[in-house]
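Researcher: Here's the sequence for the chain we discussed earlier.
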Amino acid sequence: MNELPPLSPPSPAVSEPGAAPAGAAVKPEAATPIGEMLQRPLTIAVITLGILLAAQTWSTHNQVRNLREEMARRLQKNDASGAETIALVRAVQETSKELQSKVGLLENRQSEAQSQQLALEQLYQDLSKNRDEWALAEIEQVLSTASQQLQLAGNVPGALIALQNADRSLSRSDKPQFITIRRAIARDIEKLKSLPNVDSIGLALRLDAVIAQVDALPMLADEKPALPAPAAPHPAKANPGAKAAEPAPANPWLLKLQGLWHDLTSEMWVDVRQLIRVRSVETPDALMLSPSQAYFLRENLKLRLLNARLALLSRNESAFRTDLIAAQDALLKYFDTRAKPTQTVQALLRQVQASNLAIDMPTLSESLNAVRNYKAKP
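Model: Thanks. This is the structure I predict for it:
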């Protein structure tokens, strides 16, 4: 006979949360509120926890997404920066190569400049040893030339400039050995400054003015002689009303007729004077000059005046006065001395002839001897 399995104890019936176990004596009024009170906080906690987990999940997801996007942007930026860096490195390398080539070139030039500087320093040292000798030789040459010009042409301003330049050149060296030379130069400068001043330029300009007027001077052999220069009016005639009383006013028509008559008679008298002219000439051959002879006479007079100008500039007083006397004699012999232009030329020649050119020019021997004695010292 089959045995029946033993009956297991009855399992508690599954009940809803908060239900009382089977077989328990539950009071229908007291068990229900307590179960509800226990189930509500648990449900709220579970829901709250679920919401927090969902929020945390969503926030974490957003942060991860943001991190991915940020990482992607930074990677792109790093890639761009890396490309720029590579280009910059290449440019820097090229620039560095160029700078290295330029530095090499500059080093070569610097070495050349240093070698040239050394050569110049050596040359300067060689020249500085003989600088005083060079300066003294130059001063001696300048003073010698100035002395020759002073004796031959009387060039006092040029000699003064030469002496002053020599003194200035010696003052730059500032050596006590040159005091003797500078004293001699100072004495020669004082001698030249004490000489009387001859206005050679002004006299030469007057001679040039006379030469320019020679072609316009009237000659005795001219076909139509020039009128004589008007004489200066007598003081009493120039001012007749000084002693006599002024005449009474006359009829204006009468005054006009008198003026016309005076002009007519004056012109007639001038014409009559031109018809017949009596002149006393010491050399009759002056009236017989042909036009060609008159031309050569004027040119000869110009040459005389040019020779006088050259003699003036060269301080040759004898030749200067000889040519001036010959020019004045030619004016008196062949030109009309009563004409105003001739009288003006004669006045200019007398002013030029009155100048004194006989000046004893000093020599610069004292300065030259001082320089030569210094050079002769061992």
